[in-house]
Amino acid sequence: MSGFEENLRKPEPDHVGHRQRLRERFLSGGADALPDYELIELVLFAALPRINTKPLAKRLLAKFGSFAEVIAASPERLREVDGVGDRVITDIKIVQATAERLARVSVRNRPVLSSWSAVIDYCRTAMAFAEKEQFRILFLDKRNALISDEVQQTGTVDHTPVYPREVIKRALELSATAIVLVHNHPSGDPTPSRADIDMTKTIIDLAEPLGVSVHDHVIVGRDGHASLRGLKLI
Question: Which of 79, 101, 123 is the last residue of a domain?
Fold first, then answer.
């Protein structure tokens, strides 16, 4: 018997059958049918076609805590996990970019105030699991449709600098008549700080005389979100 024929008769590695079963469960039951580590396994299949991905999936989950936090982790932190290289990082970041793009579509070309839940979902997808604070602004036209969505600043794990005059300057450059301020708390707790409230009031005071309304300041975190308008803090 030739070596080629022997190879044909060799049983497939155990992980090959596992992959097929996992795909079938996903197709029949969707993401809710799989625990986080198995969903991570699915993401790893393309990058690591010849190995059992379960151990790596579990290492990623142990380090970051959840599927969402794995997907949102920075390339530098992902690389700290044994077995993670450029191909794995690329595929994980593709999943993150896809999720953000799908969420962004739901808020484009629609009045923001009438699709508020979609706005919150988008902001949480984009920022809730980020490792550093980001300050984002949604610029709106007179119909409250989105003109632009921009990250103005990225800071540290517990602070990001905000320059109110630069916020208003950018709104005027875009001919925006309203803005929504958004930032994240990497700690997970979206409760607004005194500094968050004071900064928001400063921006409101500068914006109103120039015909720019501040609809809200939303803070997102892995534990939920908080609206300064909803909390009657502005």
Answer: 101
**Amino acid (1-letter code) at residue 127:** M
Q: Please check whether residue 122 lies inside any domain of the structure.
A: yes
Q: Is 72 exposed, middle or buried (0-12, 13-18, 19+ CB in 10 A)?
A: buried
Structure-derived torsion over alpha carbons of residues 224, 228, 233, 234, reported in degrees to the nearest 10: 180
**DSSP 8-state secondary structure symbol assigned to residue 111:** B
Same domain, 157 and 83: no
Q: How much is the pLDDT for 7? A: 45
Residue 53: C-alpha distances to residues 40, 48, 58, 66, 216 (Å) = 9, 7, 9, 16, 43
Whether 233 maps to a domain, the answer reads no
Residues 6+ away with beta carbon under 8 Å from 200: 181, 214, 217, 228, 233, 234
Task: Report which residue type is found at 73.
Answer: A
Tokens 């001919």 correspond to 175
pLDDT at position 109, please? 65
Residues of the chain where predicted confidence (pLDDT) is lower than 50:
1-12
CA atoms of 114 and 110, how far apart (whole Å): 8
Residue 97 and residue 144 share a domain: no
